[in-house]
Amino acid sequence: MQTDRLIAALAADANTAPRRIGPVLTLALLAALPVSVALFMSILGMRPDVRTAMHNPFFDLKFVVTSVLAFTAIVVSLHLTRPEASFDRWGWLLVLPVVVIILGIGAEMMMPHQRPWLTRLIGNNAMACMASIPLFSLPFLAAALLALRRGAPAHPALAGMTAGLLAAGLGATLYASHCADDSPLFVMVWYSLATAFVAAVGAFVGRRVLRY
Amino acid sequence: MRGRDEEWTGLMRAANAGDAAAYRRLLEAVTPVLRAATYRGLARAGQPVDQSEDIVQEILLAVHLKRQTWDATAPFAPWLFAIARNKLIDALRRRGRRVFVNIDDFSETIAAPAAGDTLSPGEVASHLDGLPQRQRDVLRSIAVESASIKETATRLAMTEGAVRVALHRGLASLAAKLREP
User: Measured between beta carbons, which residues in chain B are less than 8 angstroms from residue A15?
Assistant: First the structure.
């Protein structure tokens, strides 16, 4: 095939403009939402004392952390779909959820009447947390990777990793309403481990499916 | 150089607004630059330079299929060269070389060596046979025999809409086949 002919064919296809990735990613995540919610409601459901728990700032903080993680990872993911994007310029955004949790730990340290820190850190649900967050993240991860295939990331594994982070952020937001451990120390350790696992899966799969 | 970049950016904006002629002019304008850079990249990696046209075609396909990732407020050239670099590295890696591609290969303009279109059908065309029949027929008609969409529709007894769909899918499947190791 001669190059000028290929160009003619590309120009003939000029008007089927591909859709931008932002809206596609949004739609994909919205489609995954009922799947994850159904999984969550059928396996765990919200904790019984959720109404009283809502008045506990440390319960609410879990949602702040997980949504900040999801939001920043969405922003970075979309940025990384551009071939000329550099992770260095935007990657620092991903530190934000860590900053929030560290502030939370500091605040909790200053509270009177509390259980020993190791008890709070170990909590009661560590294993359930480690298993649940990846499970509820999975539909989001699949949806995100599918949408991000429209992108042209310079580093597919990195793009897959941020897809994993955004999926973990969303999955953990669901799980947080079941989880009876509200200490930021617990969140720092166990939520992070579960998130790291989902991010690793995202990087592994992304390396294969996000190449362009 | 600045003038060139601005011209490209302007053409790409026009293309996004539906101006197919501007799009074609843009692809024609970037091709010699891509050809020269690919040629240099291959030479530097100690690879036969006669593959450069295959890689140029791969870059053009990727530019086409990924053009929604270009931010219309950003200059076009860095986006283009990022794709080109990626495709060159990819092509060299597939040929079993770990390579370092010099960024400068894609940022200077030097006149293209020999305007060379390869005599062989080329790597892109060799994947045509693996496509579903409809896509293959439409791509042959438009990209090999230079028929228009309208002529292709008449020739293959399809609607013009169906030809457009098959063309788009065919280009996407070609790119996917080229990506396979």
Answer: 18, 20, 164
